[in-house]
């Protein structure tokens, strides 16, 4: 389960709150926007450019432009994702 809440998108920044259920395995993702993820709650494996990190509450993960990444949720998660520039594909999907 993935639930997105668009908190703000102005100028060249976008803030999205993402809730992910335990056991969720995301598809490999890649986009031209830079991304910074803050783990508000939970625990997950974050793969960025083939490197695995375990992230827990309070951790952050930077994802450069056009770098492949993927998540495996170990415990229910709430993530705050910041994108620059704004991800138009997400805005259009809301």
UniProtKB/TrEMBL annotation:
<dbReference type="InterPro" id="IPR011051">
    <property type="entry name" value="RmlC_Cupin_sf"/>
</dbReference>
<protein>
    <submittedName>
        <fullName>Quercetin dioxygenase-like cupin family protein</fullName>
    </submittedName>
</protein>
<dbReference type="InterPro" id="IPR052535">
    <property type="entry name" value="Bacilysin_H2HPP_isomerase"/>
</dbReference>
<dbReference type="InterPro" id="IPR025499">
    <property type="entry name" value="KdgF"/>
</dbReference>
<dbReference type="InterPro" id="IPR013096">
    <property type="entry name" value="Cupin_2"/>
</dbReference>
<dbReference type="InterPro" id="IPR014710">
    <property type="entry name" value="RmlC-like_jellyroll"/>
</dbReference>
<dbReference type="Pfam" id="PF07883">
    <property type="entry name" value="Cupin_2"/>
</dbReference>
<feature type="domain" description="Cupin type-2">
    <location>
        <begin position="18"/>
        <end position="83"/>
    </location>
</feature>
């Amino acid at each position: 389960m993935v639930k997105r809440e668009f908190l703000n998108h102005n100028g060249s920044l976008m803030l999205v709150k993402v809730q992910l259920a335990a056991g969720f395995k995301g598809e490999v993702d890649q986009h031209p926007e830079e991304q910074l993820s803050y783990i508000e709650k939970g625990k997950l494996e974050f793969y960025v450019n083939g490197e695995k990190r375990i992230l827990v509450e309070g951790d952050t993960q930077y994802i450069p432009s056009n770098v492949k990444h993927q998540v495996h949720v170990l415990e229910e998660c709430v993530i705050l994702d910041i994108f620059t520039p704004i991800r138009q594909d997400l805005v259009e999907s809301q």
